[in-house]
Design a protein that fits this description.
By secondary structure, this protein is an all-alpha fold. It has one domain (6-116): Helix Hairpins. The chain is 86% helix and 0% strand. Helix 2 packs antiparallel against helix 3 (48-78) and helix 3 (48-78) runs antiparallel to helix 4 (84-116).
C-alpha cells in the first residue's frame, strides 16, 4: 500500500469495513444492535437530538470494535508466541469496546426510556 489517490484511499477504507463485518462475530452483533436501534428510532419517531445521540453512539461502538480488531490483527502479525504485553494490548483494546458498549446501553435507556415508559 502506497500513497494512492483519494478514491483508492476510500476503497481501502470501505474494504476494511466490509472485512470487519464479514470476519468478526462481534461486529455482526454490533451491526444487528445498530439495525434494531435505528428501527426503534423510526418506530418511536425520535427527534433530531435523539437521532444525533443514537447515531453518535452507534458509530462510537463500531469504531471501537474496528480499532480493537486492528489491534488484535497487528499483535497477531508481530508475534505468534504468548507475551504479557501482547495480552495487555489485546485486553486493553477489548476493554475499550466494552466501555463503548456499556455507554451504548446507557444511551439506549436515555434515548428510548422516555418513549417506552
Amino acid at each position: 500500500m502506497g500513497s494512492g489517490n483519494l478514491g483508492e484511499s476510500f476503497g481501502h477504507a470501505v474494504s476494511g469495513m466490509v472485512q470487519a463485518f464479514v470476519s468478526q462475530r462481534n461486529m455482526k452483533i454490533h451491526g444487528l444492535a445498530a439495525l434494531i436501534s435505528v428501527s426503534g428510532g423510526f418506530l418511536f419517531r425520535l427527534n433530531r437530538l435523539e437521532w444525533g445521540m443514537l447515531i453518535l453512539t452507534i458509530f462510537f461502538v463500531l469504531v471501537s470494535e474496528t480499532i480493537n480488531t486492528s489491534v488484535e490483527k497487528t499483535v497477531d502479525l508481530v508475534t505468534l508466541e504468548y507475551h504479557p504485553l501482547a495480552k495487555a494490548a489485546k485486553n486493553l483494546a477489548a476493554g475499550a469496546v466494552l466501555l463503548s458498549a456499556i455507554n451504548a446501553v446507557i444511551m439506549g435507556f436515555i434515548i428510548f426510556g422516555p418513549h417506552i415508559f
